[in-house]
């Protein structure tokens, strides 16, 4: 959590508090309301390692942006369906993103579900999505199928967040091809660092061959525990490796996240005053300040 109590206490030459990333702690302003909505900027939350906070970040970033008046569409692009479950959406015997991938002529509005958070919608997923790569492998322009689906609804939203599965397969390539930006949640743990170079290489290949406009919107440090030397050292190495691409906001480790997931609501609803909820609101403000979101 990037705040004064969880960060270091040393000050810059202007006595500016320092955050966990070793940079001055900025108070990002509350985003002004939008006069109109759309077209959406599409952001893929991607890391081929599981358990790094992709789904948690998708849920809570989406809810935070919606709280600031943005219209948000979350795409569950993982066969485990954790994003759908985390927002309290039933996925048994309902149309899902899988149906849209197999039938691109189908109207996505038939699949979009409104969540309990005002301004936040979701296209759910379930285990059927695990068969998508087999069905799509022989399709023409198979890497662009998701982009064609999202093109039909992009004008209605300000941001579309895609929760990718932990792999670098065809589904993830589809997400990267459809996206304007990539946000990489990275657990503050040594082994989480090892696969990021391969992910960056995949993003570069997608940029070169399929989507020349894709950008790295940032690396988000998650599950940070300032009490452990390991977390602090890993975060230091992440900043050394990625520099200004590392977001100032850092997400701390807390049991409130699984508690909120069990309740089927974002942490901003479950425990709005908790430091973790405030961290995701700060992340939303930072992404707006960086121009990653309108």
Summarize it.
The protein is of the alpha/beta class. The chain contains twelve helices and eight strands.
Characterization of this structure:
This protein is an alpha/beta fold. The protein has one domain: Rossmann fold, CATH 3.40.50.300. The protein has twelve helices and eight strands. The chain has an eight-stranded mixed β-sheet, with helices on both faces. Helix 1 packs across helix 12. It is globular, with a radius of gyration of 18 Å. The two termini are 24 Å apart.
What are the SSEs and their pairings?
Elements: E1 41-45, H1 54-67, E2 72-77, H2 82-86, H3 97-102, E3 113-114, E4 120-123, H4 132-136, H5 145-150, E5 159-164, H6 170-178, E6 181-187, H7 190-194, H8 196-209, E7 215-224, H9 229-242, E8 246-252, H10 256-263, H11 267-270, H12 275-289
Parallel strand pairs: 1-5, 1-6, 2-4, 2-5, 6-7, 7-8
Antiparallel strand pairs: 3-4
Helix pairs in contact: 1-12
Which features does this protein show?
single chain; 294 residues; Rossmann fold; eight-stranded mixed beta sheet; 12 helices; disordered N terminus
Sketch the topology as an H/E string, one letter per element: EHEHHEEHHEHEHHEHEHHH
Sum up the overall morphology in one term.
globular
Mean pLDDT: 91
As laid out across the biggest beta sheet, the strand order is: 3-4-2-5-1-6-7-8
Number of domains: 1
User: What is the CATH architecture assignment?
Assistant: 3-Layer(aba) Sandwich
Low-confidence spans: 1-13
What name does CATH use for the topology?
Answer: Rossmann fold
Report the portion of residues in β strands. 15-25%
Estimated radius of gyration? 18 Å
Number of strands: 8
CATH homologous superfamily (4th level) name:
P-loop containing nucleotide triphosphate hydrolases
Quickly give the structural class. Answer: alpha/beta
User: What characterizes the major β-sheet?
Assistant: 8 strands, mixed
CATH class term: Alpha Beta
Number of helices: 12
Helix content: 25-40%
Cα distance, first to last residue?
24 Å
């Amino acid at each position: 959590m990037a705040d004064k109590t969880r960060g270091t206490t040393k000050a810059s030459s202007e006595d500016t508090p320092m955050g966990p990333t070793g940079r001055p702690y900025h108070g990002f302003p509350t985003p002004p309301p939008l006069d109109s909505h759309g077209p959406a900027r599409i952001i893929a939350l991607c890391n081929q390692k599981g358990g790094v906070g992709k789904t948690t970040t998708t849920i809570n970033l989406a809810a935070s942006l919606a709280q600031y008046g943005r219209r948000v569409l979350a795409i569950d692009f993982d066969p485990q369906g954790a994003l759908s479950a985390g927002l309290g959406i039933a996925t048994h015997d309902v149309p899902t993103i899988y149906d849209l991938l197999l039938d691109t002529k189908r109207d996505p509005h038939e699949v979009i579900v409104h969540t309990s958070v005002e301004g936040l919608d979701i296209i759910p997923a379930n285990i059927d999505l695990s068969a998508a790569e087999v069905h799509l492998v022989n399709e023409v322009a198979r890497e662009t199928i998701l982009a064609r689906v999202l093109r039909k609804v992009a004008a209605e939203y300000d941001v579309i967040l895609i929760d990718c599965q932990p792999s670098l397969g065809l589904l993830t390539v589809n997400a990267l091809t459809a996206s304007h930006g990539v946000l990489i949640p990275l657990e503050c743990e040594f082994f989480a660092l090892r696969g990021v170079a391969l992910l960056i290489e995949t993003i570069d290949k997608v940029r070169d061959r399929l989507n020349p406009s894709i950008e790295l919107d940032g690396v988000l440090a998650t599950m940070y525990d300032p009490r452990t030397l390991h977390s602090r050292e890993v975060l230091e190495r992440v900043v050394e490796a990625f520099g200004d691409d590392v977001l100032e906001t850092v997400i701390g480790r807390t049991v409130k996240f699984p508690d909120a997931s069990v309740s089927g609501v974002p942490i901003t609803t479950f425990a709005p005053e908790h430091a973790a909820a405030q961290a995701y609101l700060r992340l939303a403000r930072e992404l707006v300040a960086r121009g990653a979101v309108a």
